[in-house]
Amino acid sequence: GTIxxxxxxxxxxxxxxxxxxxPKGFITDEQTNAIWxxxxxxxxxADYRIMYLTEDYSQTIxxxxxxxxxxxxxxxxxxxxxxxxxxxxxxxxxGYDISQIQRVPQQWSENPGDK
Length: 115
Hints:
globular, mainly beta, 1 helix, 115 residues
């Protein structure tokens, strides 16, 4: 009934402090497994919805019912432009203002602690 997750990132820049969070995921729609509650701080569970997922699990869109946050994620540091535009269209079609979407620069390494 729960999923342990890990978010690791450098705060504010590639050279920023390394941050790691371990929120717990709770599947709230067991028919599709697409709607989760993510708990960073007890007892609050934030709404996370898997609104798009490629068949090979290489790209996904995680959205919220409130339409206040959305994440485009991939298993690679870059997304082909055609795929990115396709995902933006999907996001727009469910009511997000895509002019507010911000691409975040990526710098990947095998070890998240490396710079």
